[in-house]
Amino acid sequence: MSAAATGVLAAAPARVAPNKWLVTVSVTFGTLMGAIDSSIVNVALPQIRGAVGATVQEITWISTGFAIATVIVMPLTAFLGRLFGQKRVYLLSLAIFIGGSALCGVASTLPQLVAFRALQGFGAGALQPTEQAILRQTFPPKEQGMAMALFGMAVMVGPAIGPTLGGYIVDNYHWSWIFFINLPVGVLGLFMVWRFVHEPEDIRAANQAAAKALRGNLDWLGIALLAVGLAALQFFLEEGQQDDWFDSRLITACALLSAAALGLFVWRELTARVPAVNLRLFRDPVFTSGTLIGAIMFAILLASMFLLPLFMQELLGFTATQSGLALMPRVLVMMLVTPLVGRLYGRVSARLLVAVGVVLVAYGAFDVSHVTLASSSSGIVHAIVLQGVGFSFLFVPLTTAALANVPRAHLADATGLNSLLRQVGASIGLAVFATLLSRYGAHARAAVVAHVSLDRPAVQERLAALAGGFAQRGLDPVSARAAALRALDGIVTRQSTVLAFEQVLLLTGVCFLCVLPLLLFLRVNRGSGERIHVEPES
User: Residue 436's domain spans which residues?
Assistant: First the structure.
């Protein structure tokens, strides 16, 4: 620490140690709302589309704009915290999120809604990494696992309950209430953070010292390259599927722009005198492996949260609320098990906990891949509960171990990068598995159609039975046969879609097993303390 920072620390008056539980509750409000808002809007898109007069393709921009804004801010959280103070950044971000929520609720046109959702995203982007850093700085070393368990409950439970809550609101109230419900909770969170959260004096001193160097060497080029690269990458991931990926010139251009901008960004941050984002943290294999496994975990988690509701609504005829309620056992299990894993972390090897989680998630994926059109919600519960236990065993040790060697003054840098890779991993998972679902569906249909030949006796009998049923409803023979052919085509499509879901769900488990070799690098010396060497910023 510099002499100036030491002087500031020495001159600062002693402050009463904050109540860690009040701090936890205070900073969790914002993170939970941001996590919920990443998914709550999706179930309301049909109603919103009718209200603002948008096409199906246009309305997706309210989700894309939010995602782009969020990922741009995440890695800059530490940079902003050094310039303005960690607590001020959290309060301002939460205020921006609340204001964006209010404006989204009163928006009457698509451009307004997209702009206000982006404003929401700019506010939400700093909430997760700042909370993670605050909790790490507040809880003593022996309770770091519990701190990350509490953080994990907000991060993992938010996207899980978002569709259920959104479905209930849309079914019973106006769609604008999915935004208005943020207002009272957000205001309460603002008050509690202002009242109970205080920056540790060593963090305040380190940030003030670093701010002097930053103000004289603002890395505008790095920030610009980061914003362009992440915006292009997120647009590529969000819109690529519906534009058929590289068949679209716009999507191809975004991919090339993202690769070029992010490549130049890495070069800039490794050569700049005072970089905006501290990429040197990736020199530590524990931080790198923990962050990468976390990104893969969120890719699988968000993909399963996308695939199962889609299967239940499109093939089993569930409403949005019913599919959300069917997935609630996983949420409840995660809420129960995550704190228990937080307590286990101090006693059991992080690698062992992560390995157990990987196996449970993979086995759950294998189990749920046997879904059929006859499956009920109770038939899916066993598999998703098993996955919920697995995700709980993963999140706590990964987030705790990944930051184990990071100095306190650089926790905000590490949590920003950790949150960014989780978010990007989730976007990649959704993009990849949605694309595979479409392609597997096409291949499965071709395979099924090859066996549904009209010269086969079994097909003729089924077609005759369908035509007879339509004839009993009053159709003439020609119309009855045409209706029977359409019904048979629908049966083929539904069965093909089931096969595609089975393949994709099984693939999520197989892919997850591939992260096991990364556990070799997840070696945490619990008595190590702060060992990453980070080059001075001045």
Answer: 280-449+477-532
